[in-house]
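Dear Dr. K.,

Following up on our conversation at the group meeting, I've run the structure prediction for Por secretion system C-terminal sorting domain-containing protein from Epilithonimonas hungarica. I'm pasting the input sequence below exactly as I used it, so you can double-check it against your construct before we proceed with anything downstream. Let me know if the numbering doesn't match what you have in your notebook.
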Amino acid sequence: MKKCILIFGLGIFSFSNAQIPTGYYDGTAGLTGYALKTKLAQIITSGYSQHTYDALDDEYPKSDADKYYEKDNTILDIYSENPTGTDPYNYTFGVKKCGNYSVEGDCYNKEHTVPQSLFNEKLPMKSDIHHILPTDGKVNGMRSNYPYGKVNNPSITSKNGSKLGPNATPGSTYNGSVFEPINEFKGDVARCLLYFVTRYENQLSGFSSGNILNTGNINQGLVTWELNLLLSWHQQDPVSQKEIDRNNAAYDYQKNRNPFIDHPEWVTSIWGSSPLAVDDASFSKNLIIAPNPIKDNVINITGNKDLKQFKKALIYNMIGQNVQTVDNPFQDGNTIKLNNLPKGMYILKTGELNTKFIID
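The predicted structure tokens came back this morning:
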């Protein structure tokens, strides 16, 4: 798990608008592996300002308003948001909070990406905004306390395509049910859980596993199959502006940050690269690059007629660093001119679309 690929210039390509306080990550220079993870745990624990669980309701309008899709300031619910079309329903902050629900769209509540049952609903884990998201009550209940995983044959599918069903994650011996969010938010979920096992490293041995947490190996933090899956989701779905803005709001609120949003390259530096890599074909089905490997530093995209709607294209290397951003990339056709990037594998993200490509 400690093998790292394409590590160069750590930190150089971190998002310039992440608003990281000066000196916040002092002491991390030169650290890798679990030594880096432990140092980050110290940093994001120091100065943490604990709030009540109910106080999250007042914070969510600052951290989780939709300014990215419909841009209507309704609740950005990862279990109902439709990135490519009309949402099946929307919630206004403070209106239709659960309560009771019987179907989707009845009410919203709070989703602990690491279920409360694993830490006996104790503070500060119960109220830590970095891993608690406002979501539809029905879908939240559907997810229950199941691990996240890959679902091939869903027993239930939410209106935005999130799925519950038997675990089909490669390399897993767990045969129970798992929950799979849509591609657009898989990286978000992964970074929530990686934050959690870093922030609560010293308490992890007292939690329940739930086929999620590795309470016997607090350095690794997650059971191996779940870790490998989340590492691949982190690689496939790079950090978005939504996550950056939410991280800044969370810092204003509780005075700590998710380091894997500020420095996504640290995920690979700590845990290595997932053996699942980026081989999930579902991430590439809507965006085709040909030829691939690319030639002459030019990406040619085929089979897409509506790319002009996308205002930015972002190129990431396989440790999550944003190595190039192109504004208005498709105004003159479906090609993107790259900077002289080193040979290797990369991810192109534009709007809700992701795909991998190779520079040979």
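Two things stood out to me. The longest strand covers residues 344-350. The chain has eight helices and twelve strands.

Best regards,
J.T.
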